[in-house]
Amino acid sequence: MRYGHFDDEQREYVIDRPDTPLPWINYLGTDAYYGIVSNTAGGYSFYRDARLRRLTRYRYNNAPLDLGGRYVYVRDDATGDYWSPSWQPTPERELDDYECRHGLSYTRIGSARGGIRAETLYYAPLGETLEVWRVRVTNERETSAELSLFSSIEFCLWDAQDDATNYQRNFSTGQVEVADGVIYHKTEYRERRDHFAYFACSEPLSGFDTQREAFLGPYRGWDRPAAVENGAATNSIAHGWQPIGSHHVRLSLAPGATREVIFVLGYAENPKDDKFDPPGSQTLNKTRVRPLIERWLRSEQVQMGYEDLRAYWDDLLGGLNVRTPDGDTDRMVNVWNAYQNLVTFNMSRSTSFYESGIGRGMGFRDSNQDLLGFVHMVPERARERILDIAATQKADGGAYHQYQPLTKRGNNDIGDGFNDDPLWLILGVAAYLKETGDHTFLDEQVPFDNVPGSEVPLYEHLRRSLKYTLDRLGPHGLPLIGRADWNDCLNLNCFSDTPGEPFQTTENASGGVAESVFIAGLFVLAAKELAVIAGLRGQDGEEAVYRAAAEKMSGTISEHGWDGAWFRRAYDFHGNVIGSGENDEGQIFIEPQGMCVLGGVGLDDGLAARALDSVAERLATPHGIVLQQPAYSSYRIELGEISSYPPGYKENAGIFCHTNPWIMIAETMVGNGDRAFDYYKRLNPSAREEISETHRCEPYVYAQMIAGRDAPTHGEAKNSWLSGTAAWNYVAITQWILGIRPDFAGLRIDPVLPSGWEGFEAVRRFRGATYEISVRGSGRIDHLLVDGTRVDGDLIPPAAPGSVVRVEAILA
């Protein structure tokens, strides 16, 4: 069952019924000002940090689920009938029709009722710290219409955590100011306010409200606001309690006429040299921000900003465009997967319908992986992000698991001890170097833990990342897992000395002896990448050391990490093997089967192919590959959080979509294009659109998890949008199945295609040149024709910037 369709020409997903199984969201903003918006106008906005600079409120896990947003109300002043063009928050008001168009960093939602049509365009202009709502109201009646239009948002008191919990204080701190029709939210947070929000309207106001209870009325909700019902705002000024912003505009429309009303919600800061007299006063620098507001309240400026945003995405998506025999592949590669990569890069895992923006910042591991799917679009932003990440690293090579995007400081609430974290920095830097060839980047001076005076070259950070693992090897010579590895829920240093007594947790890195085969495979991959980087810097001695370390760890995996038909997962605190046929449950895990093969372990002796066969036999389902089998049927203290989930969900045998692409890539490495592409299509959101009532999440972006075969809701997705799934699926399909892969020495063309294909076409920008690629035949690469000249092998050296290179890849 479908709830909409793809408009490929406009690059939009069109939702034609509002009651989607879950809120289907989109993101506004591309740089510093962001927001989420659902297909019924739910969501919120923030500046840079979803916790510390939250502009508007949103209530997670509420009933209905999607509550709080950018709501507009239309009222027929002749009859008193009112409704919301976005369906919510007035779903009991039946609409004549409805349509939501989620585009790239914008959303349009429109509907009609009683001969009046209204549509709202939401977007955040490039380079600005504001968002625009352009509302167009059309009278489709044969008679004139007297209407009222009400806007509404609820201000958050900046720190979303404090805003949602500290009511004894916050019910007394809310402050607003209204000047020349602009509502200014100026509630301070703790210290002297240096920032504020504003909410403006392009039309003369009939009234306004800034106190929630005055607008809604006592004991009322957003579905029946008293001001809308009465047809008149109260001109309330908030003093404490719950500050909001609402404008009331009256419209007279002749038959067939359309009126446009623009609302602007934005964030501003007072200049650092502004003087407060007395300290802590609520003086606003309205003079500074007013010209900006006036500019974005003009219709021509709003249209120009919208066109600029579309052009921005035209350019970004031009970095790679493919035309294959499969429409779902083209749609995801050319538009939606690339778009999700940018959003995930911007947000890490911090804010979505499933992440409140409060509990998580930017992930060290996460952000390095997100780079893999984004670096080709805007490498300069990837460069900046790597420097931010590396600056949070500790001097011993360890890493804070997360950091706050506003302060760029490590998050002490999460801490460290996730022992795979440091190795991902090597892969992130390697991806940037392969894409750009900018090896001077390695000489950038970067501090440890953001401590001034601790700066060393970025290359030294990579050295210490590898050393961190080598300094923490366990009894079998495998890396210590610490608090956890990639699987945050596999906590193998939890134990109880006496059955039935509370468990204890060892020190994250040094006190626990649990080991990870997964980190071992990741180490092999990272050590090989760092060896190449060292060689390119002329440090041949270091290159040899890193290659030897990779080879030694590969041998350790073969000796202690192989279980006869697949790679083991780990050893727990007591030395018991995890992910083995010896276990009654959790006998085989997906992660080491993927990562060990990515590191090259088992490619020469057949272990890799055997492990992948075991994945196909034991883990693959029609909806994707589950994380492990059999599922854990009860809580096991020695395994930690993984066994706290019911079977089939999340890390307990759910289809954790992030890891599936590792298997896709591994299958291409053993030459199995059919199986690789089959796995790719099982997860492809576009290919799952027909089963939206089962999948439930958005059919245009990847989800983190799909319920596994042990779950009653097998096939149901959760935690959409922000997931390493986006970057890794993009890498799997573009770099390994289609085989267009940046490398240190140039661009590789090495497809591993499904047997039914006869080739494909692609255009790829790489280091300033444009490559027009035509792949012909089936099988593996035989040779290339580069501008008509035969090149044996699959590597094309970088061309001169600005040139157009025509490449024909001949498969045999």
Can you walk through the features of this model?
The longest helix has 21 residues. A hairpin with a 6-residue loop joins β11 and β12. It contains 19 helices and 44 strands. It has 812 residues and is an alpha+beta fold. Strands 1-2-9-10-11-12-19-16-15-14 form a ten-stranded antiparallel β-sheet, with helices on one face. Helix content is 27%, strand content 25%. Among the domains are: 310 residues, Glycoside hydrolase, family 65, N-terminal domain (Beta-galactosidase, Chain A, domain 5, Distorted Sandwich), CATH 2.70.98.40; 71 residues, Maltose phosphorylase, domain 3 (Sandwich).
Q: What is the compact description of this entry?
A:
The chain is α+β, with helices and mostly antiparallel strands.
Helix content range:
25-40%
Number of helices: 19
Q: Uncertain segments of ≥5 residues (pLDDT<50)?
A: 275-282, 496-503, 505-510
DSSP strand count: 44
From the alpha carbons, calculate the radius of gyration and give it in angstroms: 28 Å
Q: Mind telling me which CATH architecture of the domain at 4-313 this is?
A: Distorted Sandwich
Strand fraction equals: 25-35%
Distance between the termini: 41 Å
How would you summarize the topology of this molecule?
Layout: E1 4-7, E2 12-15, E3 25-28, E4 33-38, E5 43-47, E6 54-56, E7 71-76, E8 82-83, E9 97-102, E10 106-113, E11 116-123, E12 130-139, E13 145-158, H1 160-163, H2 167-170, E14 176-179, E15 182-185, E16 195-201, E17 207-211, H3 212-216, H4 226-230, E18 243-253, E19 258-269, H5 286-296, H6 299-317, E20 320-323, H7 327-347, E21 362-363, H8 364-370, H9 379-391, E22 402-403, H10 421-436, E23 445-446, E24 456-457, H11 458-470, E25 494-495, E26 504-505, E27 515-516, H12 517-536, H13 540-560, E28 570-571, E29 577-578, E30 588-589, H14 590-598, H15 607-618, E31 620-621, E32 624-625, E33 628-629, E34 655-656, H16 660-669, H17 673-683, H18 692-695, E35 703-706, E36 717-720, H19 724-737, E37 740-743, E38 746-749, E39 759-766, E40 769-776, E41 781-786, E42 789-792, E43 795-796, E44 804-811
Parallel strand pairs: 40-44
Antiparallel strand pairs: 1-2, 2-9, 3-4, 4-5, 6-13, 7-8, 7-13, 9-10, 10-11, 11-12, 12-19, 13-18, 14-15, 15-16, 16-19, 17-18, 20-39, 21-22, 23-24, 25-26, 27-28, 28-29, 30-33, 31-32, 34-35, 35-36, 37-38, 38-43, 39-40, 41-42, 41-44
Helix pairs in contact: 7-19, 8-10, 9-10, 10-11, 10-12, 11-12, 12-13, 12-14, 14-15, 14-16, 16-17, 16-19, 17-19
